[in-house]
Amino acid sequence: MNQHTYTEVNNGSAPVPVRSTPVLSYGHFYDEVTKLLGSASNHCISYYCHDLSDRLKFICCIADDETGSIKVLSHEKKADGTPLRSLTVDCPSVHIFEREIHENFGVVFEGHPWLKPVRYPHDRADRLSVMDNYPFYIIDGEELHEVGVGPVHAGVIEPGHFRFICNGEKVLHLEIQLGYQHRGVERMLAEKSEALQRCILAENIAGDTATGHNLAHVQLIESLAGIEVYEALQIERCIALEMERIAVHIGDTAALCGDVAYQLGQVTCEALRTMVINTTQSWCGNRFGKGLIRPGGSNYPLTGEMADEILGNLADVERRYSNVTDCIYSLPSVLGRFEDIGTVTRQQATEIGAVGMTARTCGIMRDTRKTHPFQHYKNFQIDPVTLETGDVLARGMLRALEVKASAGIIRGLIDAWRKAEKTVGKPDYDLRLIPDSFAVSMTEGWRGEICHTAVTDSMGNISHYKVKDPSLHNWLALALAVRNQEISDFPVCNKSFNLSYCGHDL
Questions:
Q1: What CATH number is attached to the domain comprising 268?
Q2: DSSP run (H or E) holding 411
Q3: Which residues are bridge partners to 486 per DSSP?
Q4: Which of 116, 120, 430, 443 is 20 to 30 A away from residue 102, measured at CA?
Q5: Which residues contact 285 (CB under 8 A, 6 or more apart)?
């Protein structure tokens, strides 16, 4: 730990006393954050503030992908309207965090180029800031026109508004406006006193990432309680996470095929996805893995019979998925709609702080399983798949390659599970959390890096809880991807990212 600048922690490690993180002057904080984020190995995983009644406390967590450490910095200010110099000018990836802080607490960041609302929470600082007066970017020109899509969509999806500025059919600019749900998830995670209630909330943060988010939550609670679960349970959790990755990647492949009218690929992948999620249902009674991950233990410990069923079904799925993706990614009509469409460059991905699939398709090896390992990944070799072109084709191909990789990972995990002692224990909903502590928990969901952090008060109750879904970083990548594309390319670009509305709208 640097006694004068930051506290250094590891993912899911024991919590640190709140007082151990130095409170810096804002000038010192600014200099340290810009210096850290100036290194390609570092990226900001969370930056937020919470109200201490007489002042605002800011917490910034920066992950070092080379050392596996997380540096926690803080500063404080009175809630008096005094502006702060914007970090975004020197560190563009921080833009979304400063926008959120501004919306929630009214903190003005001088020099921020895009200080606009993010979510419109019910308790936002400026109640006059409403959907109807959102300050959309405007370009004047007689040859230009605007196209609005949403918030009500033709498909059964969640609300979001997309405002295109076009020159003919070419997209010059896309602005994405989210924040229609106002769910209050973070507030409820702090207020709920029952551990089971918090688990149910966590696994519903994003419906397609029930395992990823709930594992981040449960790992955080176990960290704050100072406990480490049995090896077999850690392995089982990793298996569940990889099964979720496989299921969604195959489902997304179906959606991509549907958008380019390749029906054979669509219906085949839809059927294969069903096989995977039905296997999860056979394990725990829920196709999305809800109820499977709980603090301290499990109500559905893996059995030898279930392990055999997982391996048998995955072998079939892997073989059939490989056959259909060979067809998909060799068919000229499909390649013509995927290749060189919706490209995000490595520089763009770096500047916006892209994570997960979005980063890995741009040549950035950002995968929490490798860089900040958790659960049994600490003892398991992960070789993340990376591609370079950053287009729709890369985002589709990455899914195919990761399905194959995850199937291999599951086989290795089950081998390790067979050798481990089969003790997992029952869930413990009465864990006592360490008072006046702070902890960080990260998992690698199928979209990318998920980060949950929490602070406990003097009684060991959660006083503040913060969630970061990977979509918070990556929505801007979609806006960049459609620039200079035909507006008809938007659906396939959008599906190639498949970002989360609800994971963003907390």
A1: 1.10.645.10
A2: helix 392-419
A3: 170
A4: 443
A5: 291, 300
